[in-house]
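Q: Sequence in, structure out?
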Amino acid sequence: MSEAIYNRIAVLRAERGISRRDLADALGVHYQTVGYLERGEYNPSLHLALRIARYFEVPVEVVFSTEPFPRIGAAERASA
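A: Exactly. Output:
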């Protein structure tokens, strides 16, 4: 049994206006691989995870986590 790895790939792509195909081309993977990653159906190798983080110019912990990421806006609602 593999542990779930959560990611923010879709959020980072949306923020930057990058298509799955463009990200896949930049990473040298099939565009469906990006979809599998985003849906949590595939855990990336360490090498691919580091390349994704480098592509978005963020630390790998910004993209991937073993814990679910808080929903966007959740912190603002909790403090209101």
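Residues 37 and 58 are 17 Å apart (CA to CA).
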